[in-house]
Amino acid sequence: MNRSKPRLRALAALPFALALAVHLLLFARWRDELPAELAIHFSLGDGGRADGWTGPTAYVLISTGLLLTLAAGWATTVRRRLLWGAWATAGFTGGLFVQILRANVVDEFEVQVFSPGMDLGVALTAAAVAGAAGWALTSLVPEEEPAAGPGPAADDRRLPLAAGEVAGWSRDTGSRPLTALAVLALAAAPVTLLLATWPGALLGLVIGVPGLALARVRVTVDRHGLTVRSALARRPRVRVPLDAVEAASVRDVDALTDFGGWGYRVRAHRTGVVLRSGEALVVRREGGREFAVTVPDARTAAALLNALVERHGKV
Prior knowledge:
Structural class: alpha+beta
Strand order of the largest sheet: 7-10-11-9-8
Oligomer: single chain
């Protein structure tokens, strides 16, 4: 295990702990000046006037839960080069909550108003300052050791299988950036609901839920052929049966150059589930089309799939 990982995770969670501490301290400091019902939703099309409220207890639970969720998501998925992103996210979210509290500290004759330009500007400034701090703290985390690259292509390699022997191979693989993006989209949904309308929050769910489902997949090779499905649910799923497989091989792929990005990709004469650049299991289907999935230990998967296809053709 990389010894730098615990330190990296702690540094990723730290800004959210700081943001939560500042937010709760200000809430306690201003508690006597806050109304019985806090404004948490502001109409951006009506001068930023408040049009939705909740009790102080519910507000604290929602804001605390959001910051803790973001902290857990970043601590789980962060890479050294993206540490600044965790700090920027904490700075923006914490700054936004502080501005919401400030908008609620009014006299009895004042109207609660959220100023989009000024308040979002303050939150973005906090994000920039925190992001710079996170970038500086990157020096405290040792460089990640590069993963060993895959060997040469294994087009003709087959695992030796005895007559009647049953064999299978399965491996989970995922994308930390896609997981982080999905977590951020889900976490942003309640914030969007506070500041805008429900369609914005719905968009966060539409992006976050399928994104989280596709950010980690399980790749299986067995008597049914090749199956790639979400590691969190049985759907979505892609299956290439043995009848449709001509050959399996291992190839290095570049997510951007070869497939134009990450996720489920469709290109001319090939499709793929691409969660990173590097080693991939590539299946040549009938008609010459290819299906690729980036997964560790693809050599073993390709060798077993070739053996199962050869046996299936003799039945």
